[in-house]
Structure formats: C-alpha cells, structure tokens
Amino acid sequence: MKLNWLGAVVALGMMTGSALAQYPNKEIQGIIQWGAGGSTDVVMRAVTPHAEAVLGGKVVMQNVTGGVGAIGLNRVADAPADGYTLLMGAENPLLYKVMGLGQKDYSDFVPINLIARGIPIIVAKPDAPFNTFPEMLAHIKANPRSVKFGSTGPGGLPSVVTAMINNKAPMQIIAVPYDGDGPALTALMGGAIDVMPAVLGAAIENIKAGRMKAIAIFDTQANPALPNVKPVVETNPEFGAFLPWGPFFGVFAKKGTPDDVVAKLTAAYAAGVKHPDFVKLMDTRGFTIMNISGNEATSFLAKWQSNTAWLLQDAGVTKASPATFNIPRP
Amino acid sequence: MQAFSAFLIPILDLQLLSLVAIGTFAGIYIGAIPGLSVTMAVSILISFTFKWDVYPALSLMIGIFMGGVYGGSRTAILLNIPGAPAAIATALDGYPMAKRGEAGEAIGITTVMSFFGGFVGIIVLAVAAPLVSDFALRFQPRDYMLLAVLGILLVGSLSGDSLIKGVFAGALGILIGTVGLDPLTIADRFTFQLPELRGGISFIAVMIGMFGISEALMQLHDVNKAAIKQKISRIVPSWGTVRKYLPLSLQSSGIGVIIGALPGTGGDIAALMAYDHAKRVTKNPEVPFGEGAREGLVAPETANNAAVGGAFIPMMTLGIPGDAVTAIMIGALFIHGLNPGPMLMIEKPDMFWFIVGALTMANCFMLLFGLTGIKTFVKIVEMPRSVLIPLIFLLSIVGAYAVNGSLTDVYWMLGFGVLGYFMKLYGYQLGPVILGVILSRLLDDNWRRAIISEQESLPMLLKGIVTSPLSLVLMVSVILIIAAKTPLWRRAFGTRG
Is A11 on the interface with B (CB under 8 A)? Predict the structure, then answer.
C-alpha cells in the first residue's frame, strides 16, 4: 500500500515535471485596460473563451482601470515576460507619450492579435437642422460657437475625428467632455449636446430606433450595417487622406516573452477571432475584424501612431511633439 | 400577451428558479463582504456563463444583483462596515441599533424593507419603464449638478452636533474625490506625478478604512468590556411596524427608482437622499437619528433596493446602463447575441418580461434568505472584542485588496482608517467625508459640462436653469432647503425646522 502511494507521488511529480515544459501550465491573467461593460471588455470577454479552447488553458480576466488605461498597461509591463500576464487593450496607449500619460506604449509589447477595428460615425440629435455632412459644416459656419459636440477628452475618438474635420474645414464648436461615448450618446438623446462622433457599434441601435440620426460614416466606404448612410468621402473626398482610421482592440504580451509562447498565443487568438459566434457579434456591433499579428500588426500600430499623433499635434492638443519620441511624420 | 407569458418562465422553470435562488443567496454574501462587489461578481459571471443560454445566465446575474444590494446592509449593521456604498446610510443607524443589542431587529426591518423597496422598483419597471426613461433622459448636465448640490446639502443631516466640522469633513471628501487624472481633460490633479495616484484614490478603500478600521481602533479603547448581549426575540417586524412606516417607505422607494433610473447616479446616492428625506419628514422619531432610529434604516434600505428596478429602466428601454451592474449586463446581452437598445423592447418584448419575472423571484428569495439565519449572524456582534477586532482588520484588508487587486489600496484603506479614528476622537462625523467622495465627480464634472455648454457664461447658465421646469424645481428645492434653516424663515413660518 505504502509503495503504491509512493508510486503515485512519483508519477504525479513526473506529470507536473513534463507539464512545466509546456505552456500554459497555470492560469493566465488577462488585464483589461477598461471598465466592465465597455467595448474593450465585451470584445475581450467574448473572444477569449474561443481562444482558451485552442490554447488548452484558462485566461482569468480582470479589469484594471484608471489613468486612461495606463494603470492596466503598467501592471502588465511590470509583470514577468512569461506569457502569463496579457494586456487586453485598445488604441489609447499609442497616444500616451504625446499626451503626457506615460513613457510606455505598445512598442514595449508584442502584439498577439489585433482583433478588430471600429468605424467612426457622426451622429446628431434627431431634431438637428442638418442631415448631411456638408449641411452640418454649413450650419456650424453660419452659427459659430453654438453647436455642441460631445467629446471624451483629449486623445479619444471624438477628439481625433474633430481634429480631422478642423484640419480640412476649420469650425468653431463647443466641445462638451463626457466620461465615455456611452454617457455622451445618452446626453445626445436627451438633447444636452447636438453632435457626437462615436464608434458605429455604440450608436447603431439608437439610429435604427430614430433616437439619433446618422450624418456620415467616417470611413472610405459605406457600412453594410447602415447601407443608407453615406461615407464622408462621397461628399467630401478631401478626408480620404486620413481614412480609414478607427479605434481598435488587441491582445498584447510583454516584449521579451519567449517566441514559442507568443506563437501559441497567436495561434489561439487567431482561431478564436475566426469563431463564427464572435464574427457574428462583431458584425452586429459594427466592428470590422482585422485578425492580424506579427509584423503586419507591428506596422499597423506604427502607422496608426504616426498618423494620429501628428494629426493631434497639428491640431494643437498634444502635450509633447511626436518628434520627441521619434514618431515619424506620415 | 405572448410576451407577458415570459414573466412566468423564471417562476415555472425549476432550473431557472433555482439559478435565481443560488444567485440571490450568493449575492447576499458577496454584498456583505466589503470589497467584493456585485459589479465584480457579475463581470466574472460573463466569462463563466459564456456558453450558457441567455435565460440561465441572466437568472444568475439578476439574483446576485438583487441579493448583493441587500447584503451590503449586513456588515453595515453588525460591524459598521458597509458591504457596498449603497449601504453607507444603513450603517448610520443600523450599527447603533446593534450596539444597543437590537441587531436582530435591525436586520429584520432591513430585510422586509428591502423587499418592499425592491418590489416597488419592479412594479415601476413593469408598468412605467418608457415613461421614467424619457424623464431620466431630460436630465441635463445642469440638472445633475443641481442634484449633486442637493446631495451636498445632506452634510447638514450627517454632521451630528457641529455643522462646521461636518462641512470640513464633506470638503475633505470632495478633495479626495478629485485626486487622479481628470477624466475630462486628462490633466493631473493632486497626483504629484505619481503613477499610483493617477487612477485616483479608490473610493471603496476610503469607505472600508473610514468605517471599518476606525471603528476597530475605537473599540480598542474598551477591549475588555463584555460584548453587548443581543436580543433575538423579535426579528420579523410586526405588521403594525410595517404599516407605520408605509408612507415613508413609499416615498423612499420613489426616490430610489428615479435616482436609480438616472444614468450616472445609483443606489448609493439614492440611499443617502432617502435617509435625508426621512430625517426631514420624521417629526418625532422614537430614537434620535444617528443613535438607532428605525426610520434611518427603513428609508435607505427601501431606496437602494428600489434603485435596482430603476437601474433596469434605461437598460431595457434605451440600452443605456442605469449603473455599473446593468452596464455589464448590457455587455452580457451583446455576447449572447442580443442588441440592447430602444429596439429590444419592440423586437424582443419577452426578454423584458423575463427580466421582470426573474427580478420578482430574486426579491422573494431575498426576503426568504434574509430572514433565515439571522440568529447565527448576530452572534458575530457578541464575539469577544479580542476576536472581533482582528477579524475586522482581516476583513478590511482583504476587502480593500479585492477591489482592484492592488496593495496601494490597502495602504490607503489603513491610512484613512487611522485618519477616521482621529476624526471620530475629535468629534468629526465620517458620513460627510464619504458623501463628499461619492458626489465629488458628479458635482465637478457636471458643473464643468453645464458651464461649457453655455459658452462658459454664468448668466446664460442661470437663464437655462430658470427656463427649464426640471432645473427650476431642483434649484428651488436647493434654495428652500437652505432657506428653511435660516432664523428669518423660522420667524416667518414659526416652524422649528
């Protein structure tokens, strides 16, 4: 009997010994940069179970919020580069340096998967006296300092879209800051603001219900989710220079994570993003699936950063020039 | 009618019914442990119930929500540590009751009143959801600002003997609330460039420290005194008691539903406002407020549970979260292939009635589980202090760590505990500090939004307030509350307000 026990212990020891060599052999921590219930949270919680199935391990997700996501990013950057702490983030870290929010961005991480990108759309309250993008610009020009745009603080999607418009057609508006696009869209429905540049998925249900109206999709082409809404380039082709542009979601590991671990995670998330349930979810929320990794992802990030940082620099909303951080001008 | 039959699904389906029950039971204990929040539990459940159908997943979440909001009162009454922000007002009179040996009765009243409030919330959700949500949408930044000012005036009812000390404590709370990256401009405020301060000071850590640790330190003064023997003869309040508080509980429920339905305010503010309301309308309480007045339990407990039904109103009608928990539930609905928004009620009305049904059952289970086991629970207060005090410390440290998994929060919690101890020692009430922290952002953000919207012109803001009926009512309430306390008013109207 005693011998049997001994055998079992040895066998167990051997099992764990061999398992140690294999990734993952314990729970992986997924740090979500943004709060529970937000877009990043929903996307990550929806894709990760599909990735877990391929990975054969458990990813425990935790929302570590604050500091425009910098707290969560630093949490992962401070953890060992062993693939057991992953960052589930959005586009914001690429602007941390120029906005003075931190010294780290995605160049300190390896992209596992850039999952999807959102399409910006300009929505207005239903009784706004304009229906198209040119009409909106004309109305703003005729009524300077009276049209209220919702914003989510410097560096957020509304501030970037507003900077794009200002770049081609300078306008005098009032920017009213909100905590996120959810509260701002609520304010739009209540009439507290007139116009809101938002991500399509956040506004689509309310557009369908007539609680707000779509002015233009800020993209190079129309979106199948809202086929009747014109893309901005159709009426104002000059904006094509900035587009396509949009917020995105991605899973990241700290730089220095072993290659085989990165490969395993990449394969798992690539399969997870392709899962039909997830694809359907992204379609209904109006997100465009990217599912890119490796060099393709790295160059996407670099291009996004250079475009957006310089756009904000030219609009005068940055705290430090992108040149300081060797971000090349596009 | 077809859709309405969905109301019966969570009642007749045994599996769903038991999930609601399990959720409610778990919720009560999650809510009771400070630091473990319903928000956290529900967001973990999203991953956990990922592969389930939408009905079972929602049943569990709704149970946890209902149970959790109620559960926060347990530790508030027994240990003076509110399990959740919504239970802060409950501690103000609940804990003094426990100190007098009436913990059982306090929990009994709390349970029955939570049930009552929950019920009112559900009824309003069922019959008047579109109406209430349209009303809630009308709140402009200036109205939220005025609401916050109304809230700040509660300092008057929370400051005990010295108003000056109360105002000081309230101002300290507002200051604590402003620390961190300003969400509107991402400018650093009182962060001294420290990354730990950029996320702000965790409000839960402040709350646990101020209530839990400071109380434990106070009890060290008489660590050898025998614990108070708890009377456990009367737990379930008599019908007469319930009837006596009926008008107050109806009014508090009304406050709870409306404040809960407003996106941007939740059960914590609702409970404090209801507490203040109770203090205003109760002319002769049997026991003074702050020393164990039953009215001081009835009002916040009905209000915070009524706020649950309220929070579902904008979620179901507009796809807008009424609070942090419904925000996560909206995410859960998305993941389960539904599109929460204004069309949900039209395309999938059965979902609405299912949620109403599940809430109803959760409310009933809350009453059932709440009233059982009270006798065992009150034994906690009877424990010798030498056991109880270390236990409070342990619970507070675990709680503060659990909120964000951050050690910094534990240090904040301990620091505020010590500060709270000295404040208590010198006769400062801690209620206003917490009130200040809760209202800080609401007041600051909306004041700035309101003035920015009006081209940064004060006269235009005032014009906006006077020309909007809603803002005007709020503004007049603010003025009346202040004016009612002036000697001139008292002389003119002869009230001893």
Answer: no
Contact A115, A290 (CB under 8 A): yes
CA distances from B142 to A192, A287, B139, B470 (A): 10, 34, 8, 10
B219: Cβ contacts below 8 Å, ≥ 6 apart: B385, B388, B389
**3-state class (DSSP) for residue A197:** strand
Looking at the predicted structure, is the pLDDT value of residue A103 above 90?
A: no
Joined tokens for residue B154? 């509660």
Does the distance separating the beta carbons of A155 and B186 come in below 8 Å?
Answer: yes
Catalogue all structural domains in chain A, each as residue range(s) with its CATH number. Answer: 26-118+247-325 (3.40.190.150), 120-242 (3.40.190.10)
Residues of chain A with C-beta less than 8 angstroms from the C-beta of B199: 65-67, 71
Name residues 114-173 of chain B within 8 A of A (Cβ). Answer: 137-141
Question: What is the per-residue pLDDT for B4?
Answer: 80
Q: What is the largest CA-CA distance in chain A?
A: 92
CB A253 within 8 A of CB A112: yes
Q: Which residue in A41, A45, A318 has the most chain B C-beta atoms within 10 A of its own C-beta, making it the best mutation to test that interface? A: A45
Side-chain half-sphere exposure of A50, counting CA atoms within 13 A: 21
Question: Which residue do the tokens 């914001």 mark?
Answer: A92
| Residue B180 backbone class (left: φ over 0; alpha: ψ -120 to 50; beta: rest) | left
- DSSP bridge partners of A62: A31
Q: From the first residue on, what is the mean pLDDT of each consecutive set of 10 residues in chain B (497 residues)?
A: 80 93 93 83 81 90 93 90 88 90 90 94 93 89 92 83 89 93 83 82 89 89 78 78 90 94 88 90 85 91 94 89 84 83 86 94 95 82 84 88 84 95 92 90 92 90 92 92 80 63
Instruction: Kindly determine whether residue A186 and residue B320, on different chains, have CB atoms separated by under 8 Å.
Output: yes
Instruction: Confirm if B449 and B141 have CB atoms less than 8 A apart.
Output: yes
Note whether A68 contacts B181, CB cutoff 8 Å: yes
Tokens linked to A77: 């950057």
Task: Inform me whether the C-beta atom of residue B468 falls under 8 Å from chain A C-beta atoms.
Answer: no
Instruction: Provide the number of CB pairs (under 8 Å) joining chain A to chain B.
Output: 151
Reading the block at residue A200, the tokens are 């399509």
B-chain residues near A62 (CB < 8 A) = 405
Q: Give the containing element (helix H, strand E) for B281.
A: helix B267-281
Reduce the DSSP state of residue A31 to 3 states and report it: strand
**If you ran DSSP here, which 8-state letter would residue B211 be given?**
I
Does B341 sit within 8 Å of A177, measured CB to CB?
A: no
Of B140, B199, B448, Cβ closest to residue A190: B140
Strands A287-292 vs A195-199: parallel, antiparallel or unpaired: unpaired
Predicted ipTM? 0.84
What's the CA gap between A36 and A30, in Å, rounded?
A: 13
C-alpha B49/C-alpha B45 separation (Å) is: 6
Interface membership of B209 toward A (CB under 8 Å): no
Exposure b/e, B42-75, CB count within 10 A at least 16 = b? bbbbbbebbeeebbbbbbbbbbbbbbbbbbbbbb
Buried b / exposed e across A138-148, counting CB within 10 Å, b at 16+?
Answer: ebbeeeeeebb
Q: Cis before residue A244, ω within 30 degrees of 0?
A: yes
Q: Does A258 touch chain B (CB under 8 A)?
A: no
Cβ neighbours for B73, distance < 8 A, ≥ 6 positions apart: B82, B83, B87, B90, B94, B107, B110, B114, B301
Radius of gyration of chain A (CA): 22
Structure token pair of residue A282? 């992204």
The answer on pLDDT for A9 being more than 60 is no
Which of A224, A202, A119 lies closest to A161, judged by CA? A119
pTM: predicted TM-score of the whole model, two decimal places: 0.86
